[in-house]
Design a protein that fits this description.
Pfam families: Phos_pyr_kin. One of its GO terms (molecular function) is ATP binding. It comes from Photinus pyralis. It catalyses: pyridoxamine + ATP = pyridoxamine 5'-phosphate + ADP + H(+); pyridoxine + ATP = pyridoxine 5'-phosphate + ADP + H(+); pyridoxal + ATP = pyridoxal 5'-phosphate + ADP + H(+). It is an enzyme of class 2 (transferase). It is a single chain. By secondary structure, the chain is an alpha/beta fold. The chain has a single domain, classed as UDP-N-acetylmuramoyl-L-alanine:D-glutamate ligase (3-Layer(aba) Sandwich). It is built from ten helices and eleven strands. It has helices at about 15-30, 50-60, 85-100, 115-130, 155-165, 175-180, 190-200, 250-265, 265-290, 305-310, and strands at about 35-40, 60-70, 105-110, 135-140, 145, 150, 170, 205-210, 220-225, 230-240, 320. The strands form two sheets. It has a nine-stranded mixed sheet with strand order 2-1-3-4-7-8-9-10-11, with helices on both faces. The longest helix has 26 residues, at about 265-290. The chain starts with 12 loop residues before the first helix and ends with a strand. Mean pLDDT is about 95; it is low at about 1-10. The protein binds adenosine-5'-diphosphate and pyridoxine-5'-phosphate. Adenosine-5'-diphosphate binds near residues 146, 209 and 249.
Length: about 325
């Protein structure tokens, strides 16, 4: 560190420059956004916190991680083994952070949480963290299932229905939107109606990670925000790869959080997130096609995509939709 190498003359011009540099590093460190991310951990592979942490770090965030489960691998494999965090485990971790004054965060991100008792704690955690930082942004990915199938316990649904009302940003997929609104989403108009219901319940920004309305070539992601009396609504067509991935929703939520913070612009955040995802998935799929598409080979190629995460290349673009 510069301070330690100042030598005997702390007043020299050179040493003053070093001190100035040191001070600017410190300011930069104080400005570093801090995310508390509560999601699954897998020993092998990339879902949950394993999918979210590296991209958030590469995009300039300090990430404090609480693992809602510690599984050997994601639930798509033959077996999944490992312990689940209990509500008392969570309370202890949060208490430790609070006692040591480590609980001032710019963002809270929640994803896969298997236990209703733990999910029940999140609402009060949001208000505790907002009492420490009233500007804290809560990003809730209501991870419940995909393609018409629940992969969590059904008791989580009523808890999520409440939780999304206090979230600043939510990132459900099409099936999760249906669950949250008790509304079948078969057309894009159904999806806009469901988004309106979620806005009416209090959620300021709704981003649907993907919808599918019978088109084999494209998925459609949708984003809508109500801020300061101003509405913005967007869609983006995503060229569909002929396979399915795991961990993509977790990566998507982390990228939306990061790019909303960095750009404060829904369109840029959506475009950067989707374009990063497409680049990561293409790399993953190209690899799997070459070596065989086993579960293991289909794990997201995140480490190999460092540059693409840091510098998304915009290939697909969002379009504004006129909504009042
Ligand atoms: N088969 C696919 N082809 C192209 N992009 C995909 C594919 N599957 C997922 N994605 C990308 O991953 C993002 C999140 O995936 P999604 O399936 O909506 O999340 P979840 O895992 O929560 O169901 C989508 O916005 C899309 O960009
Ligand atoms: C342990 C775990 N966490 C998170 C997820 C969510 O993955 P995705 O991002 O694909 O919704 C899954 C899905 O299998 C999972 O098994």
């Amino acid at each position: 560190m510069g301070i330690l190498n100042l030598g005997n003359n702390p007043c020299s011009l050179e040493s003053k420059a070093l001190i100035d540099q040191e001070i600017s590093y410190e300011i930069e460190m104080n400005d570093t956004p801090r995310v508390l991310s509560i999601q699954s951990h897998v020993v092998s592979g990339y879902v949950g916190n394993k999918s979210a942490t590296l991209p958030l770090q590469l995009l300039g965030f300090d990430v404090d991680v609480i693992n809602s489960v510690q599984f050997s691998n994601h639930t798509g494999y033959k077996v999944t083994k490992g312990p689940i965090l209990s509500d008392t485990d969570l309370d202890e971790l949060i208490q430790g952070l609070a006692i040591n004054g480590l609980d001032t965060y710019s963002h809270l991100l929640t994803g896969y949480i298997g236990s209703p008792q733990v999910l029940n704690r999140i609402a009060s955690l949001v208000s505790d963290l907002k009492s420490k930082n009233p500007h804290l942004i809560y990003v809730c990915d209501p991870v419940m299932g995909d393609n018409g199938k629940l992969y969590v316990r059904s008791e989580l649904l009523p808890i999520y229905k409440e939780l999304v009302t206090i979230a600043d940003i939510i990132t459900p997929n099409q099936f999760e939107v249906e669950l949250l609104t008790d509304k079948k989403v078969s057309t894009i108009e159904d999806a806009w109606d469901a988004i309106d219901i979620l806005h009416q319940r209090g959620c300021k920004t709704v981003v649907i990670s993907s919808t599918e309305f019978g088109n084999d070539d494209y998925l459609v992601a949708m984003a809508s925000s109500h801020a300061d009396g101003h509405r913005r609504a967007l869609t983006i067509n995503i060229p569909k790869l002929p396979t399915s991935f795991t961990g993509t929703g977790d990566l998507f939520a982390a990228l939306i959080l990061a790019w909303m913070h960095k750009t404060n612009n829904l369109k840029s955040a959506l475009e950067n997130s989707i374009n990063t995802l497409q680049a990561v998935l293409k790399k993953t799929w190209d690899y799997a096609k070459a070596v065989g598409d086993s579960r293991h080979n289909m794990e997201l190629k995140l480490v190999q995509s460092k540059n693409l995460i840091e510098n998304p290349q915009r290939v697909v673009f969002a379009v504004d939709v006129n909504k009042s």
